[in-house]
Amino acid sequence: MAGREQEILDAARKLFRQKGYYATTMQDIAEAVGLQKASLYHYIRSKEALLLQVAGETMRLFHAELDRIEAAGGSYAEQLAAAIRAHVRVVAEHQETLTVLFRESHALPPEHAEKVRGETRRYTRRLTDLIARGVAAGEFRPVDPGAACLAILGACNWMYRWYSAEGRLSPQEIADQFVQVILHGLVLPRGGPAGTPAGV
Amino acid sequence: MAGREQEILDAARKLFRQKGYYATTMQDIAEAVGLQKASLYHYIRSKEALLLQVAGETMRLFHAELDRIEAAGGSYAEQLAAAIRAHVRVVAEHQETLTVLFRESHALPPEHAEKVRGETRRYTRRLTDLIARGVAAGEFRPVDPGAACLAILGACNWMYRWYSAEGRLSPQEIADQFVQVILHGLVLPRGGPAGTPAGV
Amino acid sequence: MAGREQEILDAARKLFRQKGYYATTMQDIAEAVGLQKASLYHYIRSKEALLLQVAGETMRLFHAELDRIEAAGGSYAEQLAAAIRAHVRVVAEHQETLTVLFRESHALPPEHAEKVRGETRRYTRRLTDLIARGVAAGEFRPVDPGAACLAILGACNWMYRWYSAEGRLSPQEIADQFVQVILHGLVLPRGGPAGTPAGV
Amino acid sequence: MAGREQEILDAARKLFRQKGYYATTMQDIAEAVGLQKASLYHYIRSKEALLLQVAGETMRLFHAELDRIEAAGGSYAEQLAAAIRAHVRVVAEHQETLTVLFRESHALPPEHAEKVRGETRRYTRRLTDLIARGVAAGEFRPVDPGAACLAILGACNWMYRWYSAEGRLSPQEIADQFVQVILHGLVLPRGGPAGTPAGV
DNA sequence: CATGAATGAGTATTCATTCAT
DNA sequence: TATGAATGAATACTCATTCAT
């Protein structure tokens, strides 16, 4: 059944995150699912294949969120805010997977590593395009869309290292803060009668 | 001599970054410095000690920059901008070390890992405090300083994964963009006299 | 059914020859007959038993041929020639089995290996006796019958390594050549009125 | 030193012969030379490399003997007799190596197996040519040189299975018998008071 | 009859580290 | 200082075989 395979994948993901890919032995995984080492090989081809599956799981999610958001439309600021919120949520919900992806994907054989990197690049490009369109539309400042995108992704992805479900802020709250910082910046527009920006 | 020790450290850092800590063998390091495996042990205690040294190198730098900036004074926005610029510069200049730090420090034994994490936390706190003071002084929006700080650190640290000296943007330019996004946000304040409050 | 068992035996023989006994897995055999690994065990006791069966198949054939030839009678030269022809034919027809027998029978457990060797020895003895009787009768040169027998068996058995159905010579032709060499030698009797021997 | 490497090679050869290549473990070899398993790898690259070395050792010897014999000249019958004697001697002296070569060389990776087979073919061709020249010169019967050569090689090589230093016949005696059978055949030329062939 | 699941025992190989020279 | 030799411990993976269904 797929049940056992899923159990193995879950155990592997958890262990890879806790101890790292190399430090996790097939023995560890076997014990975690209550099987003998050899029995694992009925369900998976190799340890590496396990890593590949774990690492490959997530990019889909990000793309799906972006699809949804673009379909929903709205101003660029609204779309970008939604994208940030979605990204934060995915990172919080799949922290384990993403930790493995970010920390261990270099252990994949070149071809697979390349595939994972390709997915990542594609996602980056989509987000960059969104920003570029916002800039072109005069809705965003004339920033460099590539750099801005990487700043945003960095802020969100970095969560994999510090987020905790027991932490002070909920994913929702984190997302609110990130949106505010990224969309409006930290600095209060100085005085003047001239308007402060509209809160998105 | 310290010369040899430094050579070994350099080789280790480079290899740890290229192939990862586990995938790098003492043999690799020995070949890189033109010694035999066994000879390395005249200079270093163990592979782990090597990792510890590499990983421990950098936090000092960040603190030093922050010292300098705080000593120089200026508005909170100026200080924060300077901190971002400094951070970006350090990441660009020590990408190798930071890659090892970010990716491999979990391979350290608990006590050492804790020490490294402690340094990191201390740096985060200093930056958070700076933001908190800016907020208290009414210079920054009333954001959550902790979240804002982590967003900034994420944006900057994430560079370890994508920055390339041959890339399109120089560290200087990257810093400019980051400062702009983080201090002023992406969204152009909508004109008009009618100021909307800094809601959100 | 015996059908399935035979199929398995055939597949095993073929694979043992192609890849060797150790390199052939039960999986390989199962795939070759379109069953699952576990299902093989309804027909056979073990992989070793399979090898034993394959290895044991052939000696019967050699003995049967010798029975037939001795029953038919004739001069010793005629009988020996017939034995060589028969042996060559059997090797050509059962090359697969004999390859396994010659190359892999040492993988059998001592007792079975001994049994196979016993059969081989018995065949060798019968052929040696035939030669010895020919020598005693003054029909053959006063050679050492044991050595002569092993020379003959070597020449014939070695075919397992080089014979090919697509080769230049048919088994019949090979047998003709072997008979000629073994019965009359390579060297042409020098001159003299004395005739060349009758071609057997 | 080469000493240890040679010891390992000797142990491997002996064990490969006794138990077969697959049934011999690196542990066995290590114990035989009084080292730990891991230590073997200071001297050899892999188990397979060990087999290759053992298997590759012998063909050189056969060629060297043939060189010597052809240089010495003499009638074709004399040369062939010398070749047979030499071959018998080499087999007796290197039975261990040849057993491994004949029985286990199919365990080599294709490219190396091919190389070994190439050497074998070259030796066969040289011997075939010698016979062919003898036939052309009218010194040998008009046999098929290829078949005759394979008969001879079979007779000699087969010794790897039955020869024993403690056996009834010395290599010298075996060679005498083989030469007699192959050069003059088993059958006594019938009739006439006239000459028996020259005993070579 | 057939098989999916499970396993125990085994196997080559790697690697950081030690130590006598 | 430098190293060749040696090793203990670990590790992923294989495979013949068993058994409940």
Automatic annotation (TrEMBL), chains A, B, C, D:
**Domain HTH tetR-type: where?**
2-62
User: Which InterPro entries does the entry mention?
Assistant: Homeodomain-like_sf, HTH-type_TetR-like_transc_reg, HTH_TetR, KstR2_TetR_C, Tet_transcr_reg_TetR-rel_C_sf
User: SUPFAM superfamilies from the entry?
Assistant: Homeodomain-like, Tetracyclin repressor-like, C-terminal domain
Any one Pfam family match given in the protein's UniProt record, by short name:
TetR_N
Per UniProt, which keywords does this protein have? Answer: DNA-binding, Repressor, Transcription, Transcription regulation
- DNA-binding region, residue intervals: 25-44
Transmembrane residue ranges:
none
GO molecular function per UniProt:
DNA-binding transcription factor activity; transcription cis-regulatory region binding
Protein name as annotated: Regulatory protein TetR
Q: Which organism is it from?
A: Thermaerobacter marianensis (strain ATCC 700841 / DSM 12885 / JCM 10246 / 7p75a)
